[in-house]
Amino acid sequence: PFGGGATEDGDDGAEPLLAWKAHGGWISAARFTCRGDGCTAATAPLLLTSANDGQLTLWDLGKTAGGAPRALAGIAPNCDAKNGKAKGIFAMDASGRGGSVDVATGGKNKGVTLMRLAGERLAVVRSFDLAHAGVVKDVALRNAHVVASAGDDGAVRGHDAREGTSSGAFATEEAHARPHTVVWHPHREHMLMTAGLDPTIKIFDVRRLAEPVASFTGHASSRAAFRRAIHHPHFYAPASDMATRIVTCGERSGRLSVYGLEEGAGPAVAASTISRGSLPGQEDGDVVDGLALAVHAASGLLAVAMEGSGEVFMMTSKRAEA
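and the corresponding structure tokens:
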């Protein structure tokens, strides 16, 4: 089901099921979704893509022409507030399946847009123009109404489509040096994880934003004199283990770090480092070009890609194997 065959140089490799030029600029995000009541073995999934050309496009992967899937819908959600021209989309998130899918985007126009995909139609629900004083690097949906955003202005903000003002449902102005990641806790609706171009991951309770409830350091290499690489920490809670864990790579580091959160009475949260270990072929202190991390929380699987060598490692925690 994942392709097969060999590469042109004779090495074993998987050929893609589909390959096409989807956009006129680099692609910032891709999310699978489905028609009707959800995905089944008999229905081909749909794909949402966003890109630096300013377009958000919905593709039907079950209908192709000339090797490319059919484009069902397209929209330019992040336009310049002055001239109306489409601006690049740097971040996209989507939540829901089938009949109604919520979509959020942010990007070069410094704004955040909340949309809804119903059937094969994308419609704007609310635009938060100039949500930040800098470009928007990430967005994360909490539900159909609330979206968090991270901007190059140093702020992390929340926006509620039900509010009568575009000023935001919550905000912390100096969360990070150029924050690039916002992630909602999968089971605690007020808990938000953030990261930026600094060596600290923070956990905020968005009801009390004066200080983070927990912070984590040590995942980034101390040899990284200049912070310029984006790393995305993930909440990691396999179905058999509902404890709060965070797994992350770090800038120029060949190690994975696992952190833990233990919630107490009131707003108190105890933070701990559970493990930190080098990837295969890496030694403690090695400086690497970069890592990309993907997590499948339900199964406990991790995929780690190394930028320099192109290697991909599939991993799982000992707790998930138990």
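(Above: one complete record from the training split.) Residues 1-10 have pLDDT under 50 and may be disordered.
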